[in-house]
Every structure is written in structure tokens, then in C-alpha cells.
Amino acid sequence: MTLSTTELEKKLKFWFENNFSIEQVESELTELGLDADLLETNLRAFKKMKYANKHFAGIICVIIGAVLCVLSCMLAILNPLPALFNLFLFAFTPLAIIILFIGLYLLFE
């Protein structure tokens, strides 16, 4: 059975929207009788679709974490409110670093 590329793309989108696992998609593609190169190409396209959301969330977390790091550092250095120095230095900076590392984890996973 031969499928056109548009039909394969529609199937990949359907599987992505219905939260199929990678193993399920691989078994579905092998049932369609695709050769090894075409199977690998479509499986790679499905993985790219599946991990695109994590990648985007990782970029957003890295940006937010970096901005919070710079902001907390500047507030600690400038010390506009001496009573809140400890809050800027010991609360905002670790929170920003945690958000930054969560973003890096999502980005490089």
C-alpha cells in the first residue's frame, strides 16, 4: 500500500493530536508497509512535532529565568530598599536560577 506524503502528514497530525506514543506511531507506520528510510523520516517528523511544545516552553523559561536573574542582581547591587536586600538576594535569585535550569532541562531534553 503506497501513501502520498500529504496522507502521511495527515496521519502524523492525527496521531499527534490524539497523543499517540512514539512506539504506537512506529508500529502503525510498520503496519502501513513503509520502507526503512521512509519509516525513519516520518518517525523523526513525529518526534519533532511531539517535542516542539517542550522546546518552546524551555525557551520561555530560560528567557524568564535570565531576566529575573539580571533583575534580582541589579536590585541587590543598587539596593533601592535596604530592608528588602535579603529578599532580592536570597529569594529572587535562587527562584530565577531554578526557573532557568528548568528551562534548560526542557530545552535540551
Structure description:
It contains four helices and no strands. It has helices spanning 5-17, 22-31, 36-78, 85-108.
Brief characterization of the structure:
The protein has four helices and no strands. The chain is mainly alpha-helical.
Tell me the number of helical segments per DSSP (H or I, 4 or more residues long).
Answer: 4
Query: What fraction, in percent, of the residue positions are helical?
Result: over 70%
Q: State the end-to-end CA separation.
A: 36 Å
User: Number of DSSP strands?
Assistant: 0
**Main beta sheet strand tally, sense and closure:** none
Tell me, briefly, the overall form.
rod-shaped
- Structural category is mainly alpha
- Beta-strand level of the residues, as a percent range? under 5%
Low-confidence stretches: none
Assembly state of the chains shown: single chain
Radius of gyration, in Å, reads 22 Å
Average pLDDT, rounded to a whole number, is 90
| Succession of helices and strands | HHHH
Layout of helices and strands, plus pairs?
Elements: H1 5-17, H2 22-31, H3 36-78, H4 85-108
Helix pairs in contact: 1-3, 2-3, 3-4
Q: Which properties best describe this structure?
A:
mainly alpha; 4 helices; rod-shaped
